[in-house]
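Exercise 7. Predict the structure of Aminotransferase class I/II-fold pyridoxal phosphate-dependent enzyme from Isoptericola sediminis.
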Amino acid sequence: LLSDDGTIAQTIFAEMTVLANRTGAVNLGQGFPDVDGPDYVKEAAKAAIDAGRNQYAPGDGVPELRHAIADHQRRRYGLDVDPDTEVLATTGATEALTAAILALTGPGDEVITLEPYYDSHAAAIAMAGATHVPVPLTADLRLDADALRAAATDRTAMILVNTPHNPTGTVLTRAELEQVAAVARERDTLVLTDEVYEHLVFDDAVHVPIATLPGMAERTLTVSSSGKTFSLTGWKVGWMHGPADLITAVRTLKQFMTYTSGSAFQPAIALALADEETPRALAASLAERRDLLCAGLERAGFDVVVPQGTYFVVADGAAHMERLGLEDGHELCLRLPELVGVVGVPVSAFCRPGSTAAQTMRSRVRFTFVKQPEVLRDGIERLAALT
Ligand code: PMP
Ligand code: GLN
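Solution. The predicted structure, encoded as tokens:
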């Protein structure tokens, strides 16, 4: 079951964070904010602890969180979600995704992802014993609808979508999502959608949940998490919603993964989910930090595709690799700390070894801009020494 292609191994984020800590490099690798979420949310968790909410929460999550998730989805997207039968609180989005893949796919099933894909997606598909069918994004990091259509077969059980997309920062447009939805309906597949960056979109980009498209709510499991939206990634309060029968299947499996988690954090996040200002302010500030990092990367000789969402920008380091005689982006990332004192993550880590996408992404590196401007300026100054 365990893959020999590195799908199930130490994550690239852990590897690069260890490297950053060991070398004292500026860590623009693993995506986590260097400023914590709002005080009132932290106070609410402390109050929940003091109020004695320290034992197991119900398996599907505390009622106020499930209601807050349903309210959030109705308010923002017009989605009609029953908080009692169609919502499941999870240990981060990671558990929701893994539990769904394990519950709903298995040997003989094909699961399509958009490549590069978030690493836990591939690991969960491998754990389920299903067949992973990655569909490469185009070189400019958009959906290749023809490739998607060509990849879908009668064995496709699930299409896994991630928008806003990690690692590329691509925000799929309604038109692109319509194309995914059309394939899902034609092939009668489930859709699992990872929307953890739903609030972190920039400029004119709009986050469209695929569950809002015609004929999709009945076949879609929507996953999100409070980690990114409220800068509390360590709390691991995530969730999933979708049709009751699918949620029941995932809940059944989740019982034996963690059963439940975060009994004091869940009510605090329930409170936070009514807050529209915190995520809006975060997105605005992230857009500025994106601009800062993108400009710095360009000055340092990288080609960037400006992202419309997430924490991340993908930058092409081909010129540096050639000059330094390096094989690929992974080698560049291993050398960057010693060369200039910066850590990034190779985009090839989000690709299947040897795939078309791995080739297209060979010289690309993902950098995060969810750091304070002075940290980004420090990183940019160091990177400039490459030129
Ligand atoms: N999906 C994507 C695309 C992510 O980037 C991340 C975390 N960075 C997750 C899922 C995991 O979220 P959580 O920490 O809530 O498990
Ligand atoms: N999702 C974060 C990232 O992409 C890291 C989460 C992790 O370390 N697994 O950087």
